[in-house]
Design goal:
Elements lengths: L1 H5 L4 H16 L2 H5 L1 H17 L3 H21 L6 H28 L3 H10 L4 H30 L4 H4 L3 H29 L18 H22 L1
Helix pairs in contact: 2-6, 2-11, 4-5, 4-6, 5-6, 7-8, 8-10
């Protein structure tokens, strides 16, 4: 099991898993007919987070999924009061939406940009879609880094959120204004970076990525087809 988790999944596999998990769990058929299968599918993104050594996110998510499953099992047909109904609603929301969102997050954080572009090219996605997606991904990553640096600079000067919570104008001035200034610079830099990497529409470019469908990808594809089978059986059987 440990050896399997150490292997890198292809982006196409992770994208397929994101779509299947999001769709099959969102409609709720699995949770009603095959709760154990739904729980296993819900825990899958957190197991993959363990492979990326994101233990804190995996532990929090796993505990949340298990608690939500227990609440749904014991309150689904026994919820009588307003509070019990609220707990049931939150539990169903967690079980249906959170795994798909977390699988999408795992897909993004575990994929290198070169692998992403190479995989999209292999999927015959047009350059008009690939290039904007690549530029946007680099832009949001740069914005996150800039925002983190702004927060660190404010902390060094004693301008924490706790001190400025009752002075929203200063909080806006010290945090949002520098971020807006960085955004204009970052947008230009990302655009120039895309040009220097040879990302032009209709121009074939080489790639250093060695991404390909491996045995581990075939295993997860098989698991997703099994999940689709349980979903169809739960819906139409």
């Amino acid at each position: 099991m440990r050896a399997i988790l150490r292997q890198k999944l292809d982006f196409r596999t992770k994208l397929f898993m994101t779509v299947v998990i999001s769709y099959t769990l969102l409609l709720g058929n699995l949770q009603q007919r095959y709760l154990i299968v739904a729980v296993a599918a819900s825990l899958l993104p957190y197991i993959l987070f363990v492979s990326e050594k994101r233990y804190k996110e995996a532990l929090k998510g796993g505990v949340l999924i298990l608690v939500a499953s227990i609440i749904q099992k014991y309150f689904l047909y026994n919820a009588t009061g307003m509070l019990a109904s609220l707990f049931l609603f939150i539990a169903m929301l967690v079980l249906r939406m959170l795994p798909g969102l977390l699988m999408g997050k795992y897909t993004l954080v575990s994929t290198d940009m070169s692998d992403l572009v190479y995989s999209l090219k292999k999927m015959k996605i047009p350059d008009e879609i690939v290039i904007p997606m690549t530029v946007m991904a680099r832009f949001f990553y740069a914005v996150r880094e800039d925002y983190s640096q702004i927060k660190d600079a404010m902390y060094l000067h004693g301008l924490t959120t706790k001190r400025l919570i009752f002075n929203p104008l200063k909080l806006f001035e010290y945090r949002t204004v520098p971020l807006l200034m960085c955004l204009t610079r970052t947008a230009d830099e990302v655009g120039i970076s895309a040009l220097t990497r040879g990302m032009e529409i209709g121009i074939r470019r080489s790639s250093i990525s060695a991404a390909k469908i491996k045995g581990i990808d075939a295993i997860f594809f098989l698991l997703m087809f099994l999940l689709i089978g349980f979903y169809i059986r739960g819906k139409y059987a």
